[in-house]
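Teaching note: in complex prediction, the entire set of molecules is handled at once rather than each chain in isolation. The prompt given to students was simply: 'Predict the structure of this complex.' The entities are:
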Amino acid sequence: MSTNVDIQNNIEKDYTTLNLGPTHPATHGIFQNILTMDGEIIVKAVPTIGYIHRAFEKLAEHRPYNQITPITDRLNYCSSPINNMGWHMTVEKLINCEVPKRAEYLRVIIMELARIADHIVCDTVIAVDTGAMTGFLYLFQAREKIYEIYEAICGARLTTNIGRIGGMERDFPEIAWKRIQAFIDEFPAMLTEFDKLVTRNRIFMDRTVNCGPISAERALEYGFTGPNLRAAGVDYDVRVMNPYSSYQDFDFKIPVGTQGDTFDRYMVRMQEMWESLSIIKQAMEKMPKGEFHADVPEFYLPEKQDVYSKMEALIYHFKIVMGETEVPKGEVYHAVEGGNGELGFYLISDGGRTPFRLHFRRPCYIYYQAYSEMIEGGMLSDAILTMSSMNVIAGELDA
Amino acid sequence: MTDSMLIYKIILCVIVFAVSLGAAAYMTWGERKLAAWLQDRVGPNRAGPLGLLQPIADGIKMIFKEEMIPTHSNRWLFILGPCFFMLCACMTGVVIPWGAGWEAGGTIFPMQVTDINIGLLYLLGVVSIGVYGVMIGGWASNNKYSLLGALRASSQMISYEVAMGLALIALVMMTGTLSLKEIVGQQDQGLAFVVYQPLGFIIFIICAFAETNRAPFDLPECESELVGGYHTEYSSMKLGFFLFAEYINMFISSAIMASLYFGGYNFPFQHELGLDGNVLTIVQTAVFFGKIFIFIFVFMWVRWTLPRFRYDQLMNLGWKVLLPLAIANIIITGFVMLFMGKLG
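The expected output is the structure of the full assembly:
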């Protein structure tokens, strides 16, 4: 118990200090918030970060470029493929590598699937935190289907390590195409079911409308991006503002909200899932023929057959596996629209086998700075919902 | 009271107690199966056929788990909390008429442990003191989450009791009695009271959800905010008591709703079937349990469908919506009785 003086009313009040976290069932990841509570109302919140800091940026300084991909998996693990692709594109930008159209379209498909998976996690967890467990399990069946697609493409599910510098590691197999088609056919009904169960529910709306709002000005000042900024009413999307991987070829809308509250964040993500689905459909229709990777032998592993029969292939294979590839000097920044905002890679190379410096611009890190401002004055229940609706993921926050 | 009656009552006490406990145990199984069904899952299916031995396995697990009493807690009150909650949950079953009565050797053995003339008042009283168990338990844990849960529980239960009591007053005005046996008896012929008191029934069922701490009113133990709510610090069978008492409360609430508003053990055209007294009693008891299970199903169905309220919204609903509606219901009932004469 600590005693504070309420300045406005000039009365002494007893506040309670509540330690929310680092391990608490509602904090999705490891966060600590020291809350000063007046009953159920939060007077002051002090967040602490760093509980799962794994020094990724430092690790990256000691790893060859192709070995940094698995690190990016572990940033926002709800949408690993987007992180992987973002990293590959950054290196491609540095080495000036032109990726074939087909590889870009394949990447778009996998990135949009990842976006749907990420938004499924976020939206259903909002529902779980309001107490509606059933919708969560309904949509997680759809997420499982996405994970099966990943499995068909790269063999992994959560930490995908998908794609390579210069393209994809292999073309999509037949089974992957079948699963994607099945997903496109089944997903609308599943999403509609969840939508009907949760969105317009009176209790759900009472809980989420005006819960943890942030104005567009404040959001921009903090550096918000992605769905959280769009919910506040700013139509900023990296896919449109600064198109990468042929996003300019596709026709899609950017949903925006007005209030920047939990309900708007939820709705923006719901709408984005529909848009992502439409992008996947367009990519499948327009899928060009051709190679699935660029001709960058110093980065792209050669065929096993060639390694045994060709001298150059053997040399490149050895250099890539041993991590001895030389890269040009340079400084690049590349950003992708990640699952929950602009995920940027700021890379400085001094010409060695590893980056001189690599910085991840992690959207969660930026959102979490605004967290205490957003929850102060609200109730404990609002704080929990605000956290889940911002989709703050500890792995990305602490990196 | 004759000796045979005394022995009969003791046996009935034991049966009611056992049935309450057994029903509560199997409701945990039912809830898990139902939740699984609603959520496209399988549910418990390992212990015995269809997982039917699961409640027994759970009970054994609870009893044999290590008992943890936090050193910073008030040991005495910490133990008293769950015991008190369980006791109150078991006390309510005695006034419920489970059937019309047995006839043997010229004597009628009623299927009700005791027919006190203030049965409804007794029910409300026992339910009100039940909240002390939660309050004592949450406070004695000396944990902030437990305290918040206990505060939520006590304010919620007290607020909703007001509306619940007022909803019942309209029913009492209509029937002119507080005895549950007579209220059920009056529904022997004619329509069930839900037809005359639809608003009262809706208020009562909402309050029953709040009184039993079930979703959408499960704020005292909502895991996403308060870890475990008032039972955060509890373990082993003391935790089991809290969880178990919740199911007993749900069972009893369903029985009360069935008795007061849905005719209790009566069912349509029961006298036209030409059944003998004792056979009819068996059928009536079965029908009564059928009604109870329908209500229990509603309790569970709601839990796995709806999100939960926020604390202030819950208070608003209780004081600003349900209470005025309950008072309006009393006034409407009064006017109807005044102008149309007493019902029935």
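Point out the following to students. Strands of chain A lie at 2-6, 11-20, 32-38, 41-48, 330-338, 341-349, 357-361. The longest strand of chain A covers residues 11-20.
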